[in-house]
Give the backbone structure.
Amino acid sequence: MKLMSLVILFFAFILIGCSAGNITQPVQIDTSLPDLGPAPELTNETWLNSDIPLRLTDLEGKVVLINMWTFG
């Protein structure tokens, strides 16, 4: 019991010592992306999950995920 208390106390001091020295300033990361202009119009006539061809104006204001792949 005494040994277990000493082991717990030892690890508590190690954790306190490690956490006290890690006080650092936040790193500033530039997350801005270059403006590449407007997206090109979608020119496909065949879509797997849509009855009609999609256009950018039809998708305006919506969150869209486009997964592009080909049959090969």
Q: What stands out?
A: The mean pLDDT is 80.
